[in-house]
Amino acid sequence: xxxxxxxxxxxxxCLLVRxxxxxxxxxxHVVIEPASKIVPRADTATAVExxxxxxxxxxxxxxxxxxxxxxxGYCNIWSKSxxxxxxxxxxxxxxxxxxxGDVNVMNPMLLKLSPRELLLICHxxxxxxxxxxxxxxxxxxxxGTTFSKLAKAWERxxxxxxxxxxxxxxxxxxxLLAFADGNDNHHFRSMTTYSDxxxxxxTExxxxxxxxxxxxxxxxxxxLHNGTLLMSIRTQLGGPYFARSKDQGVTWSAARxxxxxxxxxxxxxxxIPNSNRLVLFFNNSKYIxxxxxxxxxxxxxxxxxxxxxxxxxxVGNLADRQDAEYTNLDCLFTSNGSGLLTYMYAxxxxxxxxIDLRAAVFDVDSLxxxxx
Length: 372
Fold this sequence. Notes:
The chain is mainly beta.
């Protein structure tokens, strides 16, 4: 066992807490887009495997200037491709640039619908209020060579919306976009919008997942073997929470604590291919309520569940540098049995002037064979 555990209590909530150092989960770490003076930050990546076996990654890239590297800074959407399973990346291309009236364009989400058809959704944040956004849907019919505008998942709602990868395609064919919707007091609730016609039209559920403090942020969704949806949620409450949907994302249960300790940081939830086992990538850090984000964003931890997310077991850390920050995660499982976890890497933690986009490449069998 890479960890030993003890139970402690925060309020009336039991936490599964680390009491020993974790073994590093086997992976090869690569830099997709390094930080530089002209590119202070690259992150929030999403990847697909193309029909010829190449990997295509799409991500947001910030540029030097006013508010450089911060969420309100100048940012647009770029791509690279890999011919060797994600170990090296090339063919840098600008995909989506800012338009007149935009603060920036960010938060790309990529989905493969067929061997040649891809969907790409990103957020245009608008002047004069950066909180006003439009989620634009782009479509490619040539395997990602070109993209054209298809629709809008939403347009200029009066709230601040954040959606991060993944964009889900359910077994029924429904495309599900989960997002966090925030008010002027920076309190967020998790919601969904969905399309049943390939992304051309979108229906927004009026059901919300609510939590205290800053609320329910950055939902990540996976579909279980029985069709139920499981949503992992970033919180300020001591670690990730989970909500469930039995109607393809229209309504959700009340969110419940995962039992996994951590600060306020994003998660990535996936079901391992050809398996009922779930994997959660998250930051298993010490919960510090007085910290500006309730704790650090290190280590980058791997947890598994064999009972549909009711109980979790930590199997190791992918990275654990104590002065670094690992977040903004997404994971792709490839046809050759590899996994690609993309992540934001800031060192020192919390700086916004030197942030790499990196990836961990690992063997999916190491997740299948991991012992709880």
